[in-house]
Amino acid sequence: MVQLSPAPAAEGGIVFEGVSKTFSPDRRSTTTALKDVHLEVPAGSVFGVIGYSGAGKSTLIRLVNGLERPSSGRVLVDGIDMGALRGKNLRAAQKRTGMIFQQFNLLDTVRVRDNVAMPLRLDGVGAEAARARADEVLDFVGLSGKAGSFAGDLSGGQKQRVGIARALVRNPRILLSDEATSALDPTTTAQIIDLLRSINREYGTTVLVVTHEMDVIKDLADRVAVMADGGIVEEGPVLDVFVHPRSPITRDFVTTVVPQGLPPRVVEHLGSEGLWRMLLVDDEVTQPLLSDLITTYGVSVNMLHADMTSIQEHTIGQLIVKVTGPAERVAAARAFLTERVVQLEEVQS
Ligand SMILES: Nc1ncnc2c1ncn2[C@@H]1O[C@H](COP(=O)(O)OP(=O)(O)OP(=O)(O)O)[C@@H](O)[C@H]1O
Questions:
Q1: Smallest CA separation from ligand 1 atom 14, residue
Q2: Which of 91, 104, 160, 250 could, after both became Cys, cross-link 245 (CB 3.0–4.6 A)?
Q3: Final residue of a domain: which of 222, 255, 288?
């Protein structure tokens, strides 16, 4: 029951070259949604874009399937400049992408099978062939039993599966997801994330996800770009961005998954000297760090906080300790820890 054909190697790559986008709904006002965006989404990757509301995420994703055109710069999909296409060339290029939405955008009074078959019907595919293909894709997303139901009668998670089936029905090279899990509960979100990852793994489909939820990035994406005010603030492999967030906004997003610091009252009470926050990755997590510290350096260690988070196949641990003792021993302890953990920083009040 193979329903989708794997993307040929290196298909599905997206490049944003100095892309800006302004909207002028009337002559008096102009909104700049994107400012000089440079970004490369590798073919076959799961790429996350995170930002607060109004950062420009939806605009960015809508440029990829030609629903919007850049005001300046270029959006290249497999080397094709989407902004330069018109008419049937644009429609042909749009078939290389499928898109899913927060509100599913299904026709509630139309049966699931016909919702999924709709893009093919619009392409002129006959009813029988379109429905047969819709059934294949519904089987892939685990909804074959619902093909004859009305879309409006399904749960949110089932509706999003139908949305995914519809997005896949033309066998696209790129799947665009605009806040597709934002209306779903955590368990259903996890199931949709698993489905998106399996589409990427099994068929090499590039998945470009925009979201305001760092949890989604953590569980789904290989790389992440952080957006603010229409620009890219930072970009990199997800684990790197979690461990070394460079900008305040990225730190804020990381904090939603790995809560940082202590209540300010506690920091004030303890004083920030010798008050260290450490991040540990994978094998570092299981080291007997604190007992080594005490026995080797003869310092006192008060452990104030410890937690662990999984980022796909990686584990990030966080420890916050207060180390006290003679200054030179505390300094030696700090040097020892710096060697043993991926990151150590003073906790500031
Ligand atoms: N068609 C449009 N006409 C006018 N302004 C628009 C249009 N589309 C987007 N904008 C403006 O561009 C900016 C970026 O909007 P966009 O929807 O891309 O952000 P976002 O990060 O996706 O936010 P949200 O998650 O709230 O949708 C906002 O100021 C928005 O009001």
A1: 56
A2: 250
A3: 255
